[in-house]
Amino acid sequence: MHAIVAAVTERIIKRSQKPRQEYLNLIAEEAQRLQQQPARHGISCTNLAHAIAAEEHDEKVILKQSSRAANIGIINAYNDVLSAHQPYKNYPDEIKKHLGKLGHVAQVAAGVPAMCDGITQGQNGMELSLFSRDTIALSTAIGLSHDVFDGVVLLGICDKIVPGLLMAALRFGHLPAIFLPSGPMSSGITNSAKAKTRQRFAAGEVGKEELLESELKSYHSAGTCTFYGTANSNQMLMEIMGLQLPGSSFLHPQDPLRPLLNQYALAQLSQHTALESDYIPLGQMLDEKSFVNAIVGLLATGGSTNHSIHLLAIARMAGIILDWQDISDLSDVVPLLTRIYPNGEGDVNHFQQAGGMGFLIRELLEAELIHPDVKTLLGSDSPLGKGLRAYCQEPYLIIKTLDNGDQEKQLGWRDVNAESLNLDVLSPAHAPFMREGGLKLLSGNVGRGLIKISAVPESRWYTKAPAKVFTDQYQVVDAYEAGELNQDCVIVVKYQGPKANGMPELHKLMPVLANLQDAGFNVALLTDGRLSGASGKVPAVLHLCPEALLGGAINLIQQDDIIEIDAHKSLVKNHSEPTSSSDSTSDSVRESEHKRIKNSMGLGRELFSVFRANVTSADQGALSLAWVE
């Protein structure tokens, strides 16, 4: 292994030793009883009768009598509002049908909420977005708490849904678990053309009709949005962590390989329950090496900044403690191997066509940047290979003509391309787009935060300019429209942290800041909030900790203070020393903002006050689950 990757891995193992062992002990206790009999046979007859009352006769017989048949719980995040999740409508019936052919049973254990950040961006409902992750985790836990399942199928793709599902699945880590993806929609208009229309709308050059037409040409059918935001970063992570099949993440929902891959994945899951010899509980499958591989994959692809929060939260569920410094240290040695919008002009369909995940994983393995010796859903004796090396394969369709003349579709596997088929989108490790990864940790007298550099030209990695201070994104838009931001400046937006208002993504800022940058001004963003996973060319220091509501130094920044941001030196600094009067002013602002936020009502925001009261800081995963110390 690369020396830095090995050192970071060892550091995580050492730091996590106590909580990881406590976690493994917990799931070992649960696993012991499952290896004696199916989970459903460990509950009372009354309990079991309730659990199987609605099943068909044949399934009822299996669930009552068989000691070898598994009962697989399905957690489904289907709804019609999320284009990526709409294909899941018929998945439960298809899962039940195929597992039935294998002699097993499946039941929908829970339907969980799934909100679309694309719909709530810039709206008040966005203040529920981050907390929806923990809500999904809790909802998943409720579904699995019936304790009648031997394995779990997780149906989810988008921003907070995958992290929430995986967080809960790890708390039931004695069960094997897999994700079934559904894939991206086909490419619409280019993402850069879409972004340009948004900028023109922000500048008042086009109206709503032209803007809506542009958006509809981009988001036009079922499937994941095609830019490389949080949803598609989720898909990359689930594959490189071995929770999805090789090459399955970025095939279209209508691809004829989809049902064949689903069937193959379900067969793998059924072979890894406690009823089988190759038992692979999820909590043992995902270890410290798995999470290092996930971070490396995120950096090598220039993935979403949201995962600097989510990965910490997910790992914590398995007793593994990650820190932003781990991400930053790995970023120093992990090269950027993809150019997918907002890091480039191509989208995930172009990435898939160029070689996709198989090419990426092979390059990272050959560069000794990811651990090959990890467990995956393929198990220990897969014909595709051992550990992560099996993920250098890609699926393909075989059409076989039967003796009666009918045609049968079969799943085949082959080595991925030796060379990238599009060097503008996917590069080999020896000739990367950048020698460094996509994220940097910046520290200084205003706290510490993260900057995504993969989409930012290196000429803009340094900014030193007066601060323009705001307490929400709408104030920034108003100032822009009034012509008050036409200068070099650092836009400071505070009171956007998880404890303040749930840390909504500040989507309305991007067209404004991009217009200022295109007008020739040197601009940057500094905030204790988040940005969209699709944010791009404007330098932005995000997730600043401590947040303003907790008395973070961002709260001391005054109008026209000189702020320096240096991604080369990992520095963020306020060059203006705060005075006692500014301290008093910031305390007054803090009290006013606290009162305003506390009294926020509407769209259910008031119902989530318990989450805001208990949430940890962003650099601890923004967890609001009560048991987390």
Rg from Cα = 24 Å
Q: Could you say how many structural domains there are in total?
A: 2
Helix content: 25-40%
Largest sheet: 8 strands, mixed
Oligomer: single chain
Q: Please indicate the percent range of residues in DSSP E strands (runs of 2 or more).
A: 5-15%
Number of strands: 14
Spatial strand arrangement across the major sheet: 7-8-12-11-10-9-13-14
- Ranges where pLDDT stays below 50 over 5 or more residues in a row are none
Overall mean pLDDT stands at 93
Q: List the total number of helices.
A: 23
Give the helix/strand class: alpha/beta
Termini separation comes to 33 Å
Protein architecture, described:
With 629 residues, the protein is α/β, with parallel strands linked by helices. The protein has helices spanning 3-15, 17-34, 45-52, 57-65, 91-101, 117-120, 129-144, 161-171, 191-202, 208-218, 230-240, 257-270, 282-285, 288-301, 307-317, 324-331, 348-354, 356-366, 473-481, 498-501, 509-518, 580-598, 609-614, and strands at residues 71-76, 105-111, 151-155, 177-179, 393-401, 407-415, 439-444, 447-452, 462-470, 489-493, 523-527, 540-545, 562-566, 571-574. It has two domains: 3-186 and 221-415, no CATH class; 439-620, 3-Layer(bba) Sandwich (Glucose Oxidase, domain 1), CATH 3.50.30.80. The strands form three sheets. An eight-stranded mixed beta sheet has the order 7-8-12-11-10-9-13-14. A four-stranded parallel beta sheet has the order 2-1-3-4, sandwiched between helices. Strand 13 (562-566) and strand 14 form a beta hairpin.
